[in-house]
Amino acid sequence: MQNNRYDAVVLMNLGSPDSPQQKDVKKYLSEFLMDERVIDYSYIFRFLLVRGIIVPFRTKNSAHAYSRVWKEDVSPLISITMQLQKAVQALVDVPVEIAMRYGNPSVQSAFDAIQNKVPGAKNVLAIPLYPHYAMSSYETAVEQAKEVLKKNNYSFNLEFIPPFYSESHYIDALAESIKPYIAKPYDKILFSYHGLPQRHLTKADPTHSHCVVTADCCNIDSVAHKTCYKHQCFTTTKLVVEKLNIPDEKVENSFQSRLGREQWIPPYTVDRLAQLPTEGVKRLVVLCPAFVSDCLETLEEIAMEGRKTFLQAGGESFELIPCLNTHPDWIKTVASWIQ
């Protein structure tokens, strides 16, 4: 097929350590957590917190967690993103590269590859693989790409796909991926989104008076919703539930991967997994729509540790729906954004 709008495409994902060895995990955690959009404190305080407390105490446990999900010589997230790249490449006639916000392959390596494959390239499409806006995910990926572009004087301009939390083809693909798992009896489906400190919501609110401040803020129209992670997560759930006609009483949202002691978006997935069996939920289906590629947070935190928590609390069956990964409808959706 012919495509004249873009000269190349970059699929952007979060990233992973180069190996599950402690030295590589330490390097990755340092890069990730020192990002001012992830831990948005002053540089000095962030440095002391990350290098002096978090990394020294988390590296060993994180390395063990990565070792539990590692596939041969590459992490699941990198492997799946590469598979998506290959599948999308088969449907479009321009080069498709991948870039990680942290670790390898880097944004610069992707841009270099484009410059080599398409000398004189003018328009490149970047697709941050984050359905929802957050400064610690979508925003930091976009800003880093812009910084690398400016620093290296590439010949091309970048255009970014906006957060696609409500995009119809994405919702259709997500719904199709869920269908087989709710065709059999279940008590509840839990939409477990990645967590976020509540102050990130207020910081991203351009009005500085809506998110978290206004009662029922996610359901009251506001310009703040354009950059409100919580609202966008709830919107994804709402659209999927409507698409699949799932009864409201069988649906719940929660937020996982909390770090530190400050207030994050409630309710916390780890708490709900322990509480649901006591509320009569014995057969649970879980999905993690904040991710489009399975990774440590889905495969270890939810599929392994989350399952254990639920079953030990009295649950009887626990099923994790895989991320979109290389679902055929997801591949077609990504390709449609390029064409």
Description:
44% of the residues lie in helices and 14% in strands. Helix 1 (22-33) crosses helix 2, helix 3 packs across helix 12 (328-338) and helix 9 packs parallel to helix 11 (301-312). The chain has a four-stranded parallel sheet with strand order 2-1-3-4, sandwiched between helices. It is built from twelve helices and eight strands. It starts with 7 loop residues before the first strand and ends with a helix. 43% of the residues are buried. The radius of gyration is 20 Å and the shape is globular.
Count of discrete structural domains: 2
CATH topology of the largest domain: Rossmann fold
Poorly predicted regions are: none
Class computed from helices, strands and strand pairing: alpha/beta
Shape: globular
**What's the CATH class of the largest domain, please?**
Alpha Beta
Briefly summarize what is shown:
The protein contains twelve helices and eight strands. The chain has helices at residues 22-33, 43-69, 76-89, 107-117, 135-152, 168-178, 198-204, 229-244, 269-275, 296-299, 301-312, 328-338; strands spanning 8-16, 96-103, 123-128, 157-160, 188-194, 251-256, 283-287, 317-320. α5 (135-152) links the parallel β3 and β4.
